[in-house]
From TrEMBL:
SUPFAM superfamilies: ARM repeat, PH domain-like
CDD domains for this protein: PH_ELMO1_CED-12
GN (gene name): ELMO2
Protein name as it appears in the record: Engulfment and cell motility 2
Species the sequence originates in: Sparus aurata
Keyword hit for DNA repair: no
Source superkingdom: Eukaryota
Subcellular location: Cytoplasm; Membrane
Amino acid sequence: MPPPADIVKVAIEWPGANAQLIEMDQKRPLSSIIREVCDGWSLSGSEQFALRYADGPQLYITEQSRGDIKNGTILRLAISPARAARQLLERIQSHGIDARLEALKELAKLSADPTFATEFINMEGIGTLARLVESGTHFGEMLAFTLTAFLELMDHGIVSWDLISLSFIKQIAGYVNQPMVDVSILQRSLAILESMVLNSHSLYHRVAQEITVGQLIGHLQVSNQEIQTYAIALINALFLKAPEDRRQEEYTNPLEQHLTEMASTLAQKHLRSIILNHVIRGNRPIKAEMAHQLYVLQVLTFNLLEERMMTKMDPNDQAQRDIIFELRRIAFDGENDPTGTEKRKAMYTKDYKMLGFTNHVNPAMDFTQTPPGMLALDNMLYLAKVHQDTYIRIVLENSSREDKHECPFGRCAIELTRMLCEILQVGELPNEGCNDYHPMFFTHDRAWEEFFCVCIQLLNKTWKEMRATAEDFNKVMQVVREQITRALAMKPSSLDQLKNKLRGLNYSEILRLRQSERMSQDDFQSPPIIELRERIQPEILELIKQQRLNRLCEGSCFRKLGNRRRQEKFWFCRLSLNHKVLHYGDLDESPQGEVPFELLSDKIPVSDIKSVVTGKDCPHMKEKSALKQNKEVLELAFSVLYDPDETLNFVAPNKYEYCIWTDGLCALLGREMGSDLTRSDLDTLISMEMKLRLLDLENITIPEAPPPVPKEPSSYNFTYNYS
């Protein structure tokens, strides 16, 4: 007979004594259970003790968290959080160097526990640590442990960052600005400055006064990728919290900014080249957190375009109209205008039509829709001035075509700009956990404009390949979007590589790819083939189900969502080989390969699982509803609900892992697998198997006597490889 749901069997340890094996009644007060345990070892003053986990982070157990205790958990009797905080505070302020170092080391470990942190902060512990830092008398390990404890304590959000003093900020900034400083101290100092900027508007101004790009450039040139990551994270934080007027000043790239004032052109190029050569093209593979910070920097860079993208052109603004006049002059007048401006004005309408504007009389009206607003005009002017020969060739080439086949440059440039803004998500905030950065955007000081120039030439080329007319405009734009997105998915490392990828994705290739991808949908529509498909489908579904379950048995690593990305924490989950238990546990770092079951301390019997929920229905998404949950995290979230009223919450690292796990869990529970990945795999594998069977039929030589009906295969000889 199974034990009652409220009874949990645990082992409790105490140094120098045999462990107690008890049945913990979750309905009893925790204080009563602790008193009973203390009596078992003849310990007095049970109110001075508490229970902690013996493994993993060794967190204190409270009335609120005791529900997480599972059967077979090993606990440890320890001094209470209040007593531990008081003792550590006394030892930290002692005169003995060794005693103080040991106390700070223990404090750095305990500070991650919210129960202990609350007690320590209530005893003014934050102020004590801040004074130790401000004194400037701590160095090496002692200072590193002090900064670690300070950062962990502040991360709980119990006290406001606004209480931090200016002298503390100057001291931390000093560690960042020192040419030679211990790596652990530098890491924590950069992390503290980032948290200050992200959590306090007033501290942003103080930090920005203390830190310059010059100091951070030095940290980007080191071989330690973690230091590089923290440095870029600080740049991102400063830029993200910068006032709007400073961000948009002179329409400059954040890669090209001084963090407190505009940098010179030389310094701008220097910073970008440092990131490109020492980070992106360094000798080490880019880790996930560095990739995320590069993605954030890329997003913030493109978000600078938002103001121009959402600015309508004022048809009465002469300065703006002069830009259109300049486009016409470069295309048709060359360097000089010998016939005189007045005489040329009568021909402007014809010229504007040849330039491909929709409104031939007043082309300024073409730029009154947002997006792309004035950003489209900026792109056109850049092409005309920097790539003048290309611009003139595109305009004149189309003006000499038959009217029905001319590619309207103005209309195309405006629509292309809108499309590029959508593809690169200009104006949207960075997504938590997204690592989708493109190295080529770090290879040029005007990467956005150069990207546009490559794409407008692609559009003109595709228009000719399709022999398009004005009625085909939307079709051409759809093909161009597909060409660009497919090329970007290949992650070209430079603009030249992008051009090569796009050359390979001409219109004929796009048609071939489309036809190939439609085969599973369009082929085999006759009734006999449909019947064969229906007969094959159960076998294929079982094959996919086994693949999903095998992937769950291999397991996956998941990242814990926290307040600070730089201090990543991971956990791993995998299904037992007999498909009866889900094993999971915390990890110190992202694993390389499979994690043994022995290292995963927690488990859930599959028989206890009630359901799997996704997206907004997940408890951890509802809990964080007050925060700004971005769409991507929501789309990757899922939870396992199991008895008694417990949950195991996931955020998948990517869409593929999300589909694998949600499908696998559904298969485990005997429910329908309904992800897009399963539907795609089902169509692909059914089409492959049907083609193999039909090919076998075509190769049969019909003998005089009717052959016996071949027996259908019961298993498949191919393995579907997911990459």
